[in-house]
Amino acid sequence: MATQAEKLVTSLAILKSLVGDSKRAIFRSREFSRVHKERLVKAGFLIEIKKGWLLLADPAKKAGDSTLWYSNYWSFLSFFLEERFGKGYCLSAEASLSLYTGATTIPKQLTIITEKSSGQSVHFPFNSSLFLYQDIKNLPVERNVKEGLQVMMLPEAICRSSKNYFAQHPVEAVVALSLIQDASQLLYYLLKRGQSTTAGYLIGAYRSIGRKDVATRILDSMVVAGHKITIENPLIQPVVSFPFRPQSPHAGRLQALWYSYRIPVLEIFPEAPGLPEDAKAYLSTVEESYEDDAYNSLSIEGYEVSPALIDRVREGRWNPSEESKDTQQKDALAAKGYYLAFEEVRLSLNRVLHGHNPGLIVRQDLARWYQALFSPSIQAGLLQDYYLAGYRSTQVYIQNSRHIPFPQTALLDSMDIFFELLEKEKHAAPRAILGHFFFVHIHPYSDGNGRIGRFLMNIMMAAGGYPWTIIPVSRRSEYMNALEQASCENNIVDFTRFIKSLGG
Question: Which distant-in-sequence residues (6+ apart) come within 8 Å of 397 by Cβ?
């Protein structure tokens, strides 16, 4: 009789054949026999998302870890809606705009227009759900595909979005409006449906972001067609116009969020004292804080490092060629990398303290910080050389976060905008707070984003004369929750107050 282990191997072989070269992670229950399904679920290789639907899992992951669900959210919905409705569905106007504008947050609820009758709500793990409603008359004839899902064409989605949407989601609204190349794209829908009210608030919105050409064209065309137009600006929050780069809506989102977030940062964070007069004394204080800085920053990332290990690395008493035990320790390699990166950051800091633009310094030196951080792991053979090439080439996910970092295709454009914002920002507080937040929000590297983000924040702190600020591991949960609020709830206030509470 086969042992339990042998039976599991048989079930795993079936699972492997279904995964195949496509690396699919979503399955229908009917693809497995009851015995194989139950065995794989019990062993943790599959989890049941909803009755009849299974997701490939990692038995090593802790129960309650939402990362697996969030990382497969869009692909699951694509399979789920295709199976249930075929092509007879479409995301609502607002949901469509979220995908067009590079929204990075997994929504709590998604609204779907369907062709055939369906129940109102479908609930999924981690309090996510779909709201389904049948509306054959208003189901768009022309549709696009985003993340494998049927969405409205961009101009139609803009014209079908309510004035309240513009007020409540100004970032998405501004990015969506900026993606329109010519007024004719919107006028087709506005004139076809006689949407004079919608035309009025689109004109107001375009005027507010500095696109008077589009606003004038919409107004003139609607008036010629006999419509009476009342113009109003639905963008209640202040929005600064910017030169949008159409190849990456993520870059536009980054700009719009920066201008929106800097206002509460300036209101909450203390006024910058100014560049320290005694650069040598400031550098000395930073060097004295190294042990505390390294311990907390590494511990936040889950490394188990002791003050003794940190001292041994700093003093050169750690030799991987002689100490085979240390060669095996990722914690020791991380500590060595942190020390080397700290030394690079110190060189950058010295230039900033002597009056160089901190944004430009970070643009020039960031790659060296990153390379130093991981060079010990490369030399020990734990990582491949190409790891040091630069920005990541694959999608990454943040454990248990609804925020999905920018796709790799948007990194070059977004990081260029990020550096530009840092260089042009006149106030030290937004440079420090938003510099840290947006760096980890973009997540440009495969690893090390948190450590580098804290280095970056402190370079910006120094440029304003704020003290070098260490985020204690004892407040890790508060720190991570504040970042999540900023990423997923458009709330930068909690993060600003958190950093302020540390004495910055």
Answer: 67, 70, 71, 404, 405
Q: Of 298, 251, 294, 320, which is closest to residue 447 (Cα–Cα)?
A: 298
Distance (Å, whole) CA 49 – CA 56: 10
Examine the domain organization and report whether 122 and 44 are in the same domain: no
- Is 54 in the same domain as 78? no
Whether 396 is in a domain gets the answer yes
Chain Cα centroid distance, residue 20: 29
**Residue numbers of the domain that contains 160:** 73-224
Q: Which strands, in side-by-side order, build the sheet including 109-114?
A: 89-91, 109-114, 128-134, 121-124
Residue 241 lies in a domain: no
| Banded pLDDT at 43 (limits 50, 70, 90) | confident
CA distances from 288 to 41, 303, 343 (A): 52, 22, 13
Closest CA to 355 of 431, 464, 504, 455: 464
Half-sphere exposure of 447 (CA within 13 A, CB side): 15
HSE, side-chain direction, 13 A CA sphere, residue 22:
9
pLDDT digits (tens, 9 = 90+) for 155-213: 999 999 999 999 998 888 999 998 898 899 999 999 999 999 999 999 999 998 888 99
Strand partners, 317: none
Residue 51 vs residues 56, 122, 215: alpha-carbon distances, Å: 15, 11, 50
**How far is 458 from 432, CA to CA, in rounded Å?**
7
Number of domains observed in the structure of the chain: 3
Q: What are the Cα distances from residue 397, in Å, to 31, 354, 440?
A: 28, 38, 11
Cβ-Cβ contacts under 8 Å for 450 (sequence gap 6 or more): 297, 300, 301, 440
The values of phi and psi at residue 24, to 5°, are -65, 150
Distance CA 134, CA 395 (A): 34
Q: What tokens does 263 get?
A: 């206002």
Distance, CA of 158 to CA of 189 (rounded, Å)? 10
Which tens digits make up the pLDDT trace of 94-118? 999 999 998 889 999 999 999 987 7
Q: What Cα–Cα distance (Å) separates residue 264 from each residue in 175, 238, 240, 426, 432? A: 21, 12, 15, 15, 13
